[in-house]
Design goal:
By secondary structure, the protein is α/β, with parallel strands linked by helices. It contains nine helices and nine strands. Helix 6 runs parallel beside helix 9, helix 7 packs across helix 8 (about 205-215) and helix 8 (about 205-215) packs parallel to helix 9. The longest helix has about 30 residues, at about 235-269.
Length: about 270
């Protein structure tokens, strides 16, 4: 599956043609935490890819309380000429990746919104694969477990990833192979509605977001990565513990409470 395929390029042009001139077609939200020296390259790479394919875009970089020069580094980025607007949002306290994504999503002004991680692990070309299907789908998810995907990760990261995927499936029944890869695209109106209902604000936010989107009736498509996904950022034990706690919280909110509400409704009838 190549992003340069004529069908994908035609769909991308169709996506942009419906947007008035001078307005962004897509808002790209880039969360960043302690990425000084990295984030500028990511921002410029994203804008270069979109601009090179004629996509008017808006960039929103969210500095998640890094406490270093991440925000300043992002401000110095030089986006392409088709970047309609670039904003760098920052706050003092680290609140988690999910919080950063939510903040960015709620500031989006384009009809479509994409998320891509700021650490450069995912090739910006992936955006050209996840945006065109939004003509027919409500959300498009990059999956590192797709049969056509390639993954470069340490054995430990692979074990942890597979364990989290299994737990997510067993506890929530979300029915999506990969909730965590940091490159997704959505119809903005539906995304904002879902984000306002999200409770979890850190790494497991993606799980809850996708569950809510499904409850809202969203059609979700999973696609492979166009390039090998490199997972190099180390995971701390505290992050793993938080993800498990968040997953249990999500399970309680969207499974136990929902079942109890349905039971109560049946009793009342």
């Amino acid at each position: 599956m190549g992003v340069a395929a004529p069908s994908f390029l035609r769909a991308l042009r169709a996506l942009c043609s419906a947007v008035p001139e001078g307005r962004p077609c897509v808002t790209v939200v880039i969360p960043a935490y302690r990425l000084e020296g990295v984030i500028r390259s990511t921002v410029e790479g994203v804008s270069r890819v979109l601009g090179g394919h004629g996509v008017p875009h808006e960039l929103i970089i969210v500095d998640d309380g890094s406490g270093d020069g991440t925000a300043e580094d992002a401000v110095r980025a030089c986006p392409s000429g088709l970047c309609v607007r670039m904003s760098v949002l920052s706050y003092c306290r680290n609140r988690g990746k999910g919080f950063a994504l939510s903040v960015g999503a709620l500031h989006a002004t384009a009809p479509y919104t994409a998320f891509i991680d700021g650490d450069g692990d995912i090739c910006p070309q992936q955006l050209l694969l996840i945006l065109p299907p939004l003509i027919r789908w409500d959300a498009v998810i990059t999956s590192k477990y797709h049969p056509q995907a390639r993954l470069d990760a340490s054995p430990l990261r692979k074990v942890l990833g597979n364990a989290f995927r299994l737990l997510t499936t067993l506890l929530t029944g979300v029915g999506i192979r990969d909730t965590q890869t940091g490159c997704k695209a959505f119809k903005t109106k539906l995304l904002k509605e879902a984000v306002r209902r999200v409770y979890v604000k850190r790494y497991a936010m993606d799980v809850e977001l996708l569950i809510i989107l499904k409850h809202l009736g969203a059609k979700i498509l999973e696609v492979p990565a166009v390039s090998e996904i490199r997972l190099r950022t180390p995971f701390k034990l505290t992050n793993i513990a938080r993800m498990l706690l968040d997953l249990l919280t999500i399970t309680y909110r969207h499974t136990v409470i929902t079942l109890n509400s349905k039971t109560l409704s049946l009793v009342e009838k």
